[in-house]
Design goal:
There is one protein chain. The chain is mostly helical. The chain folds into two domains: 213 residues, Rossmann fold (3-Layer(aba) Sandwich); 95 residues, Tyrosyl-Transfer RNA Synthetase. The chain is 55% helix and 6% strand. It has 13 helices and five strands. The strands form two sheets. Strands 1-2-3 form a three-stranded parallel beta sheet. Strand 2, helix 2 and strand 3 form a beta-alpha-beta unit. The longest helix is centred in the last third of the chain and has 30 residues. Bound molecules: adenosine monophosphate. Adenosine monophosphate binds next to helix 1.
Length: 332
């Protein structure tokens, strides 16, 4: 069975873009792959979270993923910091990762520009830590978004370089997981591109969103001044509302609003009210489940422990073999 590894940054609540764009695919993947899903809490230290914030962000991600249906009996769900073997492999990979190539990584260059006061070594070596996350389980596939493609390419470079240095074929060269269904882009509520936390709170619909906040956000979603003549083209913000409806509304409901748009009888207030109702229907079971899971400390602890044990089984085997390849020999 192919091994899939995917990391999740503990950056707080997940929005419906994360759900439809990533989590829904994870649910399919866990049925026929050996999946390792980890919460990347080492990675998150580049931004220096407080101890309280760190723990609460990790708890939220863990609870949300369980509430969405990631199954700890099918997949290995663990905290990166529970697997210290990752840091050892990170150290070995860093010995053959060069300053120049790390500085050329586009996410590093961007971060260096946006946070010039905090260009730390952790940020620079983000790709070697990511490579360690993947290679520690000798993964075949990694589900990556466009922004991570360059990191995955570097993982292959580091795996290959290790293999050449030690004249071995130990590490596989992992490739991007391609879903059968095409990748979707969920738009946000502010009328621009894809739903994203960086576009602000009002752009995002969180899967655990409170009912009244959800309604307010959707009723305030950006639209336009209405169709000026029959059969006119949808503007971007209105097309976004329809795209969101495609995720949660019945087709006949969508069709009737599209017809109303075409003959200029549409009222955006009604359109948004409908979207708010349908989104509420979609979200409400998750909202309850997320809350219950977050409060169930026993469940979180059992899942984290089981995940840590299973992840360490695989990771410690890799480290044992990598140490032999490198040439560490015990004197005792
Ligand atoms: P982020 O934490 O924003 O990098 O998101 C994690 C993952 O969620 C991404 O790699 C995408 O697969 C998915 N994702 C995030 N935002 C969207 C969106 N608006 N539409 C579709 N997928 C998304």
């Amino acid at each position: 069975m192919e091994i899939v590894v995917s990391g999740i940054r503990p950056t707080g609540k997940l929005h419906i873009g994360n759900y439809f764009g990533a989590v829904r695919n994870f649910l399919k993947m866990q049925e026929n792959h050996q999946c390792y899903f980890f919460i990347a809490d080492f990675h998150s230290l580049t931004t220096h979270p407080t101890p309280t914030d760190l723990h609460s962000s990790v708890s939220i991600v863990l609870a949300e993923y369980l509430a969405f249906g990631l199954d700890p009996d099918k997949s290995v769900i663990y905290l990166q910091s529970d697997v210290p073997e990752v840091t050892e492999l990170y150290l070995y990979l860093n010995m053959n990762a060069y300053k120049g190539e790390l500085e050329r990584v586009s996410t590093f260059k961007e971060k260096a520009k946006t946070q010039p006061d905090n260009i730390n070594a952790g940020l620079l070596t983000y790709p070697t830590l990511m490579a360690a996350d993947i290679l520690i389980h000798n993964a075949d596939k990694v589900p990556v978004g466009k922004d991570q493609e360059q990191h995955l390419e570097m993982t292959r470079t580091f795996a290959n370089r290790f293999n050449r240095l030690y004249k071995t074929d130990y590490f596989k060269e992992p490739t991007a997981f391609t879903y059968n269904s095409k990748l979707i882009k969920v738009p946000g509520l502010t009328g621009t591109g894809k739903m994203s936390k960086s576009a602000g709170e009002s752009d995002c619909i969180y899967v655990g969103e409170d009912a009244d906040v959800l309604k307010k956000k959707i009723m305030r979603a950006v639209t336009d001044s209405g169709p000026q003549k029959p059969n006119s083209k949808l503007s971007q913000p209105v097309a976004n509302i329809f795209s969101l409806m495609e995720l949660v509304s019945e087709q006949n409901v969508i069709d009737s609003f599209k017809n109303a748009y075409a003959d200029c009888s549409i009222r955006y207030g009604d359109l948004k009210k409908q979207l708010a109702e349908d989104m509420e229907k979609f979200i409400s079971p998750y909202r309850e489940r997320i809350k219950d899971t977050l409060e169930n400390k026993q469940l979180l602890s059992r899942v984290a422990r089981q995940g840590a044990e299973r992840a360490r089984e695989s990771a410690s085997q890799t480290i044992k073999e990598v140490r032999e390849i490198i040439g560490f020999k015990k004197f005792y």
